[in-house]
Amino acid sequence: MTAPATMEALLVEALPDEPGWRFEPKWDGFRCLAHRKDGVVLLWSRSGKPLGRYFPEVVAMLAGLDGRDFLLDGELIVETLEGLSFDALSQRLHPAESRVRKLAAATPARLMAFDLLEEGGDDLRSLPFSERRTRLERFLRLHPAPGLSLSPQTKDRGHALGWLERTGGALDGVVAKRADQPYRAGERAMLKVKQHRTADCVVGGFRYDREGQQVASLLLGLYDASGLLNHVGFCSSFKAAERRAWTAELEPLIEPPGFTGDRPDTRSRWATERTAEWQPLRPVIVVELLYDQVTGGRFRHGTRLLRRRPDKDPRQCGCEQLDHPLTPVELGELLRSSSRTP
């Protein structure tokens, strides 16, 4: 069976402030479509890749539900003692079955459901979201199971903004959905506001573009407690004129070692020959960056340059800037009361 397409969200600066919208937490996990038909459960990622082999505990839980076949839209999350852990979730994508089984027992995943697209052979995608939500709430009430939760929802914009303010780094943001809207698969028909924070980082290196002529990205570093400069991410959102200016400024600063702790060429399953190529710099330039999420002490995504910080000493740029509370009271409340609708 071909994986169904998901409805996506458009990134905006602020949540809508008019009637008719519903707000939900944007969980920090893997988007997942869960389909059960004739007793067979399939899990798909947003991109249509199969996820079932990596999350056997979720497959078994969904296969054991009473009732009819279904198609759920939701988010796979992993909760640890420190809170939600995207790093622990990512480690579940392991090629060895023995390792998968061990991790399934040690760090079991939960499916946080936020939409019901099919039930008992009925396609619900043409229904307004408010009706699908009612059907989803009834479905989960009739079929309770450990590892299956209903994502909280509110009509109150202020309450939704409170989630962002009080959940530290644990949520990825807030999603807004029109109550009267059908499920528009393959379209960016929802809105999302993401968590954004700033950090002052040292430019410890850069990468050239494919032609090897101009700067393509700045490599960012932070000092740890032992005084080592660790690579923590990159910034690459530059216009052509800015790339030329950065190239002229940085080339005279090329000087090993650049990073004295974790380096950009540290091999991982995501590293390629291209990503291992970089130029070390004398650590003298400080920039302020805008970022969203941190995983394993690094920026998970590319950052956005806000400004230069010539007033700041590079040694003042410490890794502690990326420490965010992972177990705030509000997150625990969201997880414990996931069936309540404020």
Outline the fold blueprint.
Blueprint: E1 8-11, E2 21-27, E3 30-37, E4 40-44, H1 56-63, E5 70-80, E6 83-84, H2 86-91, H3 97-106, E7 109-119, E8 122-123, H4 129-142, E9 148-150, H5 157-166, E10 171-178, E11 188-194, E12 197-208, E13 215-223, E14 229-235, H6 240-250, E15 279-280, E16 286-291, E17 294-295, E18 298-299, E19 304-308, H7 329-336
Parallel strand pairs: 1-11, 7-9
Antiparallel strand pairs: 2-10, 3-4, 3-5, 5-6, 5-7, 7-8, 10-11, 12-13, 12-15, 12-16, 13-14, 16-19, 17-18
Structural domain count: 2
Which strand-content bin applies to the residues? 25-35%
The percentage helix is 10-25%
What CATH first level of the largest domain would be assigned? Alpha Beta
User: Can you tell me the residue ranges where pLDDT is under 50 for at least 5 consecutive residues?
Assistant: 267-274
What is the overall pLDDT average? 90
Class computed from helices, strands and strand pairing: alpha+beta
For the sheet with most strands, the description reads: 7 strands, mixed
Shape: elongated
User: Quick one: CATH superfamily of the largest domain?
Assistant: DNA ligase/mRNA capping enzyme
Task: Write the H/E string, N to C.
Answer: EEEEHEEHHEEHEHEEEEEHEEEEEH
CATH T-level topology of the largest domain: D-amino Acid Aminotransferase, Chain A, domain 1
CATH architect. name of the largest domain: 2-Layer Sandwich
Rg estimate, integer Å: 22 Å
User: Treating each run of at least 4 consecutive H or I residues as one helix, how many helices?
Assistant: 7
N-to-C terminal Cα separation, in Å? 38 Å
Number of strands: 19
